[in-house]
Amino acid sequence: MRRAAFVLAAVFATCVATPALARHSGFSKDSNKTSSDPSRHRGGASDDVPGAYDYYLMALSWSPTYCETHVDDDEQCTHKGYGFVLHGLWPQYDNGGGPQRCASDAEVDRKTVDATLAFMPSRRLINHEWGAHGTCSGMTPAEYFATADRAFAAVQAPSELKAPKRDLTMTSDQLRGAFRRANPGLADNMMNLHCSKGELVEVRVCLDKNLSPRACGKRMRNACPAQATFTIPASQ
Asked: pLDDT tens, 103-132?
């Protein structure tokens, strides 16, 4: 399991907000409601221009939270032992939101899918992410997912979150601090946290086009308690 320790979240129903705000992790219809215009989630190609964006929002889903309610997901769950997995790498605008579902006839080939499963363990999610976000990247499917792979490797999981054997309890400040310690140069304004029903669902990190952490654009918000603790379920 390559990178299984650091490996998607509340909303497997709306890809940018689905895994993040509604207890999901594997496949989501794009739940980026915290940073995208909800009107962009209605299907069909948009008039957005591929390649015309300012930075990326990388969504790291906490797989154990998703697996609590998706025990029959054989690709991601059933005692696979994942911690963080990649939900998506989403092109974003500095002023908020980001392009989605750009016109494209390209499809993700089997070789690319097989390689991507190492850090995004869901075929459905891979194809969804390409259609919703990858088509706006200005890249081919192979290039986009190779970029997502590098982005995933660029941010390290805190040591205490590498396949914990028991549930953890943290505050937002503690979790942010753990990520800062594991990633020198990462600041609070470069990430936001998402919880659902008292559990961690997702950590989102803003990256420039060179995949280095940068300050997030407008219209970002956190969805974990500001002061109260929340639970990070143990790896399964």
From this structure: 999 999 999 999 999 999 999 999 999 999
At residue 56 the predicted structure's pLDDT band, cuts being 50, 70 and 90, is: very high
Of 133, 194, 199, 202, which residue is the catalytic one? 133
Which class does domain 18-232 fall in?
A: alpha beta
189 C-beta neighbours (distance < 10 Å), count: 12
DSSP calls for 143-205: HHHHHHHHHHHHSPPPGGGSS-SS-EEE-HHHHHHHHHHHSTT--GGGEEEEEETTEEEEEEE
Active site residue 160: no
Task: Determine what percent of the chain falls in helix, strand and coil, rounding each to the nearest 5.
Answer: 30, 20, 55
Q: How far apart are CA 27 and CA 12, in angstroms?
A: 5
Beta strands, E only, 75-116? 84-92
133 in active site: yes
More confident residue, 28 or 85: 85
> Measured at the alpha carbon of residue 19, what is the angle toward residues 13 and 24, in degrees to the nearest 5?
85
- Establish whether 194 is a catalytic residue: no
Catalytic residue (choose from 24, 41, 128, 129): 129
How do residues 147-173 score in pLDDT, each as one tens digit?
A: 999 999 999 999 999 889 999 999 999
Q: Would you say residue 197 has pLDDT above 60?
A: yes
Residues 87, 128, 194, 202: which is the catalytic one?
87
